[in-house]
Amino acid sequence: MIEMNDVWKTYKNGIKAINGIDVKINKGEFVYIVGPSGAGKSTFMRMMYREEKPTSGKIIINGKDVGKMKNKNVPKLRRDIGVVFQDFKLLPKLTVYENVAFALEVIEENKTVIRKRVMDVLSLVNLKNKARFLPDELSGGEQQRVSIARAIVNNPVILLTDEPTGNLDPDTAWEIMNLLDEINNRGTTVLMATHNKDIVNSFRKRVIAIEDGLISRDEARGEYGYED
Ligand code: ADP
Fold this sequence. Notes:
Layout: E1 2-10, E2 16-25, E3 30-34, H1 41-46, E4 56-61, E5 64-65, H2 74-80, E6 81-85, H3 96-106, H4 111-124, H5 140-152, E7 158-162, H6 170-185, E8 189-193, H7 197-202, E9 206-211, E10 214-219
Parallel strand pairs: 3-8, 3-9, 6-7, 7-8
Antiparallel strand pairs: 1-2, 1-4, 4-5, 9-10
Helix pairs in contact: 3-4, 3-5, 4-5, 5-6
The structure holds adenosine-5'-diphosphate.
Adenosine-5'-diphosphate (ADP) binds at residues 11, 13, 15, 17, 35, 37-43.
């Protein structure tokens, strides 16, 4: 599903963000990515959906070499990968429904198909009754649920989440974690970069720690392992 072989990334400003990573993540896994700020977690994930290209090494996602992929094939890759950010990144002038439908409209699905898929996914995240609301009429947790709905509406095989609970209070963070767990149980491979020690230590899953652009720890049912 996800394979990296000797991957390095140096940004144009000379910062060496990833310094020789080898990793394999199988279909259906749930993996926490932990490590100090600036360690390379976001870069590690951004390379998977070709937001960044590796400087060297090979990244295979779903059988395809994403480093070498032509630009015209990147939209197809991004339909296989859903992405969720700490700050939700919803379009403020679109309703909940429109934010989620947007990804499907871009690929020109017909209106009936779009309606069914959007309502199914809003039902999964428990927001069917707020389909007509605007993002700023929702709580932080609800906004994050919309962004998760938007990320999974195309049925991606991989869901990448970068600090998805970072802006949320502890109860809401747990709610989001339960939702990600359910999405994983339905078969989607989920990666979650996080600083949420309580969640990592309670919902035990595979833990990959990144420090100075290298994998310093990779445990099947790991712990958070830092004090912050
Ligand atoms: P983390 O997600 O663990 O906080 P990042 O992957 O965001 O780490 O950052 C790793 C290193 O790369 C940091 O030193 C950061 O400043 C640098 N970096 C991240 N993004 C860029 C960029 N777009 N251009 C230049 N340097 C970057």
